[in-house]
């Protein structure tokens, strides 16, 4: 994270005695990245965060198996046809993934249990509904259009307020704002499409009582269920630059050009060998001879997965793409507007059309994406041939 926060009670200096009202010591916990060489936060617990009383392995679901995208082709998956089930942790329907990132869809009304992903950061895009994110850092309210970024190792749970749908990005590393948006000291620069004021973080501690509390933990070795002697939500204060936060896609300020700009202008976050981009409503390209629609392109180093969150994608008209759709355009395939889309947009401009209404989340990966069983179960088999109609 690019800047410092303090929440609740903390002592004046790091790593000094900090006593409870009864005279005992609070237990200090350092959450730090990259071997004490990057961002960190200090959390102060009423109980020992190390006190576990049981550990058991959890067998993974067979539904987590990935298969190669063969024969190589563009794909269209209809997440709106996936059944609801589980919660925002156990109900993730795997769409695609590789060694760097896993992409899933979830639709549920059920609260999750406590969960800790110790393999990497998560970025959960709330496509619909409202949810409370609870963690050792405090609580966040999130709703439609919010990205919720969860640092590695954060114990948390999700409490929906009715039905919630979400696109889940699980990284094998850290998810951060792009370096080009930040000064060398971490402040958002003036050309960045969002800034510190757009980010929401927990503002007060969240405490809960309980004993023998189970926490599902994901590690590189698999899944484990640890049982903690005391409830992990016992933090009275924390400070630092590492914490969960929310950012709403509608606060992204699109970068506009006279002629069509490539996807890097939409970049919102970066992860290990992937980027996350936000396509938001914006003015159309305004050069008098502009073609205000994506050109045919072949990103030779990336697979492109697009989640269509709202609005109208004129470039995809006639493809079967709709809100809730996911398209996958792999490296090795040239893709672009559907037949007739360029002429249709130029005619709309002549009729006075000046803005796009598209809303989408795109993940570009620099290693090929394999396909998850959930995606294959709702695939549109005709999509690959829609450019030939």
**How big is the Rg?**
22 Å
- In terms of structural class, how would the helical and strand content be classed? mainly beta
Residues in helix, %: under 10%
Please state the oligomeric state of the protein chains shown. single chain
Side-by-side strand order of the widest sheet: 15-19-12-9-14-7-6-25
Fraction of residues in β-strands: 35-45%
What gap, in angstroms, lies between the N and C termini? 47 Å
Q: What is the mean predicted local confidence, pLDDT?
A: 94
Low-confidence stretches: none
Number of helices: 2
Order of helices and strands: EEEEEEEEEEEEEEEEEEEEEEEHEEH
DSSP, total strands: 25
Main beta sheet: 8 strands, antiparallel
Overall 3D form:
globular
Which features characterize this protein?
389 residues, mainly beta, eight-stranded antiparallel beta sheet, six-stranded antiparallel beta sheet
Produce a short descriptive summary.
This is Homogentisate 1,2-dioxygenase. With 389 residues, the chain is mainly β.
């Amino acid at each position: 994270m690019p800047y410092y926060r303090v929440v609740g009670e903390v002592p004046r200096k790091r790593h000094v005695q900090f006593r409870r009202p009864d005279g005992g010591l609070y237990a200090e916990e350092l959450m730090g990245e990259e071997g004490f060489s990057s961002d960190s936060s200090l959390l102060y617990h009423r109980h020992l965060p190390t006190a576990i009383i049981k550990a058991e392995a959890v067998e993974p679901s067979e539904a987590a198996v990935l298969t190669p995208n063969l024969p190589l082709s563009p794909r269209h998956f209809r997440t709106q046809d996936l059944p609801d089930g589980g919660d925002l942790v156990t109900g993730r329907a795997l769409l695609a993934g590789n060694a760097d990132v896993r992409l899933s869809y979830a639709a549920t009304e059920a609260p999750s249990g406590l969960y800790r992903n110790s393999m990497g950061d998560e970025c959960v895009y709330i496509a619909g509904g409202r949810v409370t994110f609870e963690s050792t850092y405090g609580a966040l309210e999130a709703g439609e259009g919010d990205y919720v970024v969860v640092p590695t190792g954060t114990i948390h749970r999700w409490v929906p307020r009715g039905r919630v749908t979400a696109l889940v990005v699980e990284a094998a590393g850290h998810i951060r704002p792009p370096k080009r948006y930040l000064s060398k000291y971490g402040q958002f620069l003036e050309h960045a499409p969002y800034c510190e004021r757009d980010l929401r973080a927990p503002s007060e501690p969240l405490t809960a009582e309980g004993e023998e509390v189970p926490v599902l933990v994901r590690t590189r070795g698999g899944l484990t269920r640890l049982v903690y002697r005391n409830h992990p939500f016992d933090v009275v204060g924390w400070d630092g630059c590492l914490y969960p936060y929310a950012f709403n896609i509608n606060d992204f300020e699109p970068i506009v050009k006279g002629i069509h700009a490539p996807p890097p202008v939409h970049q919102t976050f970066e992860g290990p060998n992937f980027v996350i981009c936000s396509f938001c409503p914006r003015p159309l390209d305004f050069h008098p001879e502009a073609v205000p629609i994506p050109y045919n392109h072949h990103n030779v180093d990336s697979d492109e997965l697009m989640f269509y969150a709202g609005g109208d994608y004129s470039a995809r008209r006639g493809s079967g793409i709709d809100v809730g759709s996911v398209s996958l355009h792999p490296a090795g395939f040239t893709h672009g507007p559907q037949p007739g889309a360029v002429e249709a947009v130029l005619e709309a401009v002549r009729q006075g059309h000046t803005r796009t209404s598209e809303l989408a989340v795109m993940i570009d990966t620099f290693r090929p994406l394999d396909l998850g069983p959930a995606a294959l179960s709702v695939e549109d088999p005709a999509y690959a041939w829609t450019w030939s109609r």
